[in-house]
């Protein structure tokens, strides 16, 4: 689906929590977070954390220099303080 959207001229970014699958699928751009399944944008009730993931994904649209770019911001689960918290 992501490739079809890209073929229509609309850039996309995946947010992934399973790196092995992301490497196999090879989306045009992806943000990988080593977080639990079901929580690709972070913990429930932490809007600052979720906003940061969204900003990272949107930023990748501007900073990716090659197809298949995989950004790994390295945020730890439940230990990092985000702007606005």
Characterize this entry briefly.
Helices cover 35% and strands 12% of the residues. With 85 residues, the protein is of the alpha/beta class.
Helix vs. strand class: alpha/beta
> What number is the mean pLDDT?
92
- How many β-strand runs? 3
Count of individual domains: 1
Q: Low-confidence spans: pLDDT under 50, at least 5 residues?
A: none
Kindly state the percentage of residues in helix.
25-40%
Task: Please list the strands of the largest sheet in the order they lie side by side.
Answer: 1-2-3
Number of helices: 3
Largest sheet: 3 strands, parallel
Distance between the termini: 35 Å
Q: Element order, helices and strands?
A: HEHEHE
Beta-strand residue percentage: 5-15%
Radius of gyration from the CA trace? 13 Å
User: What is the general shape?
Assistant: globular
Explained architecture:
The chain has 85 residues and is an alpha/beta fold. It has one domain (2-71). The protein is 35% helix and 12% strand. Strands 1-2-3 form a three-stranded parallel beta sheet, with helices on one face. Strand 1 (14-16), helix 2 and strand 2 form a beta-alpha-beta unit. The longest helix has 17 residues, at 47-63. The radius of gyration is 13 Å and the shape is globular.
Summarize the topology.
Layout: H1 2-7, E1 14-16, H2 19-25, E2 29-32, H3 47-63, E3 69-71
Parallel strand pairs: 1-2, 2-3
